Amino acid sequence: MRHATTSRESYRTGKSLDLARVLLVHGELAPRLALQTILQAGGYAVDVAASPAEAMFKLDDGRYELVLTDQRFCSDVLSYARVKEYRPATAVVNASELDPEIPGSRVNPLLSVHTEGVPMLLEDVAELIGARACRRYRPLRSTA
Question: Does pTM top 0.85 for this prediction?
Answer without folding.
Answer: no
